[in-house]
Write a structure and sequence with these properties.
Number of helices of chain A: 12
Protein name (chain A): Sorting nexin-2
Order of helices and strands of chain B: HEEEHHHHHHHH
Helix content of chain B: 55-70%
Helix content of chain A: 55-70%
Main location (chain A): other
Radius of gyration of chain B: 27 Å
Structural class of chain B: mainly alpha
Membrane topology (chain A): Peripheral membrane protein
Strand order of the largest sheet of chain B: 1-2-3
Radius of gyration of chain A: 28 Å
Oligomer: heterodimer
Shape of chain B: elongated
Largest interface: A-B, 55 and 56 residues
Shape of chain A: elongated
Keywords (chain A): Acetylation, Cell projection, Endosome, Lipid-binding, Membrane, Phosphoprotein, Protein transport, Transport
Family (chain A): Belongs to the sorting nexin family.
Structural class of chain A: mainly alpha
Order of helices and strands of chain A: HHHEEEHHHHHHHHH
CATH topology of the domain at 299-512 in chain A: Substrate Binding Domain Of Dnak, Chain:A, Domain 2
Strand order of the largest sheet of chain A: 1-2-3
Number of strands of chain A: 3
Distance between the termini of chain A: 54 Å
Distance between the termini of chain B: 78 Å
Chain lengths: ~525, ~375
């Protein structure tokens, strides 16, 4: 029923052994809530290495024993990773006071109040991107089944380590369920202030997957499903906190910090392909609008086209990777069957040396099966999930383009309403109805203000979108590159293990005759 | 003209058996021709001949047809690979196993092994047909030799019943039981290993697709961020191309060494099974002859006794040859398996080391990328 508490996320799919090489750093047990052990990942490479944090080895994120891992440029190579940071940041009471100081001390881009906005050049935007260092790391671990039967759900431990004063403590954690993550996305998407931002989409709901888990969490496909989801939720949060604006958001803070969250409802929208459906519907609505947008700047049109093309390409890539993963799994099965057949052949041999060699061969093949298993996992977790994430992210990019167009629409509609009000006023003047005239004048003022406001909103959103897309592309190249490096490291390790297997077997083969 | 020469029972092979090579397979429309090269004993050079599968069958039939050689039925005949077929049915493909993969190298190797085994066999090498096959410029007579139904296991169902007939000799009974078990396991092992090699090929192909699909993502543009991503895609495409090549090597190594080895082992077990069956049939014949001789009426008695004596003599010969063959097979088998396992291991080790090197190079290149 309730699976063992406080255990490390199982590696893909059901092997009990931790990944060699990955956990050659501090193999912390996860029983302690605080301390360096939280972020030791014993599973296959799953954590997206965000832009600034590029550890040299695939080790745990914050091993204090390994000062070479620099989560961000603020830290120096000494035992207390946060010492220097604490000296820099204002040390006032945790909570709201540090908001203003935050922008200067951690160099976040300051585009926040529309009224004070000046159109900045592209170079300035890029400069602000470069100062984009942040100081928070999150991990999602310890999936645990809560409850029984069809009402059961899985709770995950969300652990945060940070030195930012906007948070109440430096190291803390909370238990969250899947719908909480969806709820967070819903809240962020709805915010006017975040319009134009590329809000990372959460992983998809899966009725089939969850039903299996509700029934029992122990079979390999359930384990695989839970691990896949855990890793996806982790990447989702990591992308959110990597975004300077989102990190500021109180809902994000609540999500990470609060003991209990109000249960998120209305998460129906995000089932299965629901998310993409939603985006597509919005796109359709935009394209059907009567007033065609007059682009003074072809940048937006060009980019939108690029995003579309890229999404097609990524889908194609994902299809190929999926077939690769399934072939690798097939190889596992075939290798295991072959190993068994060799064992049987070895057992029926009279010649002892031959029998021994064939049994050894069967063992080697068993080890290879394990290797193939891991390789399938690596292919999957690194490439398939990366591609799937970016397909969803591109959907989000399209979404923010649409938001800009809608902002333009609103501005245009306000202008036409204003025009109508003015015409109405003129009519009233002509008809000489002074009592209604006052109201008309008030309405005109109201709408003039709105037109001004909406124009500013539109400009602001345009700038946000540009900035976001730039940031997105930079992150994308970095993300892919770091994942590929992880992949190659894993491949290299596999090959080296393979070499060892063969070297060990060769004398056995030679010794037969 | 060739027919008369072949009627002579024995000759000495004029080539070094271990130098026989099947160097190529040439396809010309429907005809498939194999080039066979062997070194002359006299040291004066080589014989180059071209032969089709029909010629191989001609040779095999002649080997079977040596009825005057005492105990010929006790010989474990080197197995000839099945006829290669284009667009073979699934059943035939399964039978062909490794030899049906469409690569000619393993198939040529299997034919080569067949010829070498015949040349190395003290009885079979003396057959004139072998000399003609290896040395004659003209192809051996293509007319169909009377098909000697030598492989009796493929005969009518009624015959199969005899396979279980209890033996009079403990050595042979043990060998029959053991052979039955081994044949099954060896065949399964060969089949399952084929599955492994085929899946490895599939993975290689999928990697190739991935590399190709990545190339499509590469764009030349001015945008620095786009360029960065394009570079990543281009490099990753190279990586997967390497992975594909590595995987293909792994599959080819599998096929050429252990694959062939397991295949040969299984077919030799089958050949032994055929031989043991022939002997068992002879045993049944002998037991019937004894019964007939016992029960014969005086008129027929001496005739029956003759028959019985002949049967006894033949059976004795067969047992003598069979025993030698079994001992030889069991000895050689160990060496053959050892060789194929060692070769397989060495080749895979080599490929794995090369793979590690290449992945390391790619890794360093990626790390060095801006």
């Amino acid at each position: 029923m309730a699976s063992s508490s406080e255990r490390n996320p199982p590696p893909f799919p059901a092997s009990e052994k931790p990944e060699p090489g990955l956990s050659d750093m501090a193999d912390g047990d996860s029983d302690s809530d605080e301390g360096a052990d939280i972020f030791v990942s014993n599973s296959l490479p799953t954590s997206v290495s965000r832009g600034v944090s590029q550890p040299e080895e695939p080790a745990d994120l914050f091993g204090q024993e390994t000062p070479t891992a620099k989560p961000n440029g603020v830290y120096s190579d000494d035992d207390d990773l946060f010492a220097e940071a604490q000296a820099d940041l204002s040390s006032d009471t945790p909570g709201n006071s540090a908001r203003k100081d935050l922008s200067t001390s951690s160099g976040l881009p300051s585009a926040r109040s529309p009224a004070a906005l000046q159109p900045t050049s592209l170079e300035q935007l890029e400069e602000e991107e470069a100062k984009d260092c942040f100081d928070v790391d999150v991990a999602v671990t310890n999936p645990e089944k809560v409850g029984d039967g069809m009402n059961a759900y899985v709770a995950y431990k969300v652990s945060t380590r940070t030195s930012l004063p906007i948070f109440k403590s430096k190291v803390f954690s909370a238990r969250r369920r899947f719908s909480d993550f969806l709820g967070l996305y819903e809240k962020l998407s709805a915010k006017q202030s975040l319009h134009g931002c590329i809000i990372p989409p959460p992983p998809e709901k899966s009725v089939v997957g969850m039903t299996k888990v509700k029934v029992g969490m122990d079979d390999p496909s359930s384990v695989e499903f839970v691990e896949k989801r855990r890793a996806a939720l982790e990447r989702y949060l990591q992308r959110i906190v990597a975004h300077p604006l989102l990190l500021q958001d109180p809902d994000v803070r609540d999500f990470l910090e609060r003991e209990d969250l109000p249960r998120a409802v209305n998460t129906q929208a995000f089932s299965g392909a629901g998310f993409l459906k939603m985006i597509n519907r919005a796109s359709d609505a935009v394209s059907k609008m009567t007033i065609k947008m007059n682009e003074s700047d072809t940048w937006f049109e060009d980019k939108f086209q690029e995003v579309d093309t890229e999404e097609q390409q990524l889908r194609k890539l994902l299809a190929v990777v999926d077939s690769l993963v399934s072939h690798r799994k097939e190889l596992c099965v075939n290798t295991a069957v072959f190993a068994k057949s060799m064992a049987m052949l070895g057992n029926s041999e009279d010649n002892t040396a031959l029998s021994r060699a064939l049994s050894q061969l069967a063992e080697v093949e068993d080890k290879m099966e394990q290797l193939h298993q891991e390789q399938a996992g690596t292919d999957f977790f690194i490439f398939a999930e990366l591609l799937a994430d970016y397909i969803r992210l591109l959907g989000a990019v399209r979404g923010c383009f649409d938001q800009r167009v809608r902002a333009w629409q609103r501005w245009q509609e306000a202008q036409s309403t204003l025009q109508k009000k003015r015409e109405a006023e003129a009519k009233l003047l002509w008809a000489n109805k002074p009592d209604k005239l006052q109201q008309a004048k008030e309405e005109i003022n109201e709408w003039e203000a709105k037109v001004t406001q909406y124009e500013r909103d539109f400009d602001r959103i345009g700038m946000t979108v540009r900035r976001e897309v730039l940031r997105f592309e930079k992150e994308k190249a970095k993300d892919f590159k770091s994942q590929i490096i992880k992949y190659l490291e894993a491949m290299l390790q596999s090959q080296q293990r393979l070499v060892k297997f063969w070297e060990a077997f060769l004398p056995e083969a030679k010794a037969i005759a | 003209m060739m027919q008369e020469e072949v009627n002579e029972a024995t000759s000495v092979l004029s080539v070094y058996g271990h130098t026989i090579k099947v160097t190529e397979a040439l396809q010309d429309g429907d005809t498939l021709t194999f080039i066979i090269v062997s070194q002359k004993l006299s040291g004066t050079g080589e014989y180059h001949v071209d032969r089709t599968y029909d010629d191989f069958e001609w040779l095999q039939q002649h080997l079977y047809a040596q009825e005057d050689v005492p105990g010929i039925q006790g010989v474990i005949f080197p197995p000839l690979p099945m006829r290669p077929q284009a667009n073979a049915s699934a059943k035939v493909m399964k039978q062909l196993g490794f030899l049906g993969l469409g690569e000619w190298q393993p198939y040529c190797k299997a034919l080569e092994t067949f010829l070498r085994q015949v040349a190395a066999h003290c009885i079979l090498s003396k057959n004139k047909a072998m000399e003609v096959f290896l040395t004659s410029i003209d192809p051996p007579g293509r007319q169909k030799v009377k098909r000697n139904i030598f492989n009796r296991l493929s005969q009518a169902v009624g015959e199969l019943r005899k396979e279980g007939h209890k033996d009079v000799d403990e050595f042979f009974q043990t060998e029959r039981d053991h052979n039955l078990v081994l044949t099954g396991h060896a065949r399964t092992a060969a089949e399952k290993f084929l599955d492994v090699a085929l899946t490895e090929q599939k993975i290689a192909v999928a990697c190739g697709h991935f590399a190709a699909a990545l190339q499509i993502c590469v764009e030349n543009g001015d945008d620095p961020e786009k360029r960065a991503f394009s570079r990543v895609c281009a490099k990753l495409s190279e990586v997967f191309d390497s992975i594909k090549k590595n995987m293909m090597s792994v599959a080819v190594n599998d096929m050429n060494t252990l694959g062939l080895g397991l295949d040969l082992d299984w077919r030799y077990q089958e050949a032994e099974r055929e031989m043991l069956f022939r002997r068992t049939c002879k045993l049944v014949e002998l037991e019937n002859a004894r019964k007939n001789a016992e029960r014969a009426k005086p008129v027929k008695k001496s005739a029956m006794e003759e028959v019985k004596k002949a049967a006894e003599g033949e059976f004795e010969q067969i047992c003598k040859v069979a025993k030698q063959e079994i001992v030889k097979l069991n000895q050689e088998r160990v060496g053959t398996v050892q060789k194929s396992l060692t070769q397989w291991c060495e080749q895979q080790l080599q490929t794995a080391k090369e793979g590690a090197d290449i992945f390391n190079q790619h890794l360093q290149a990626f790390k060095a990328m801006a």
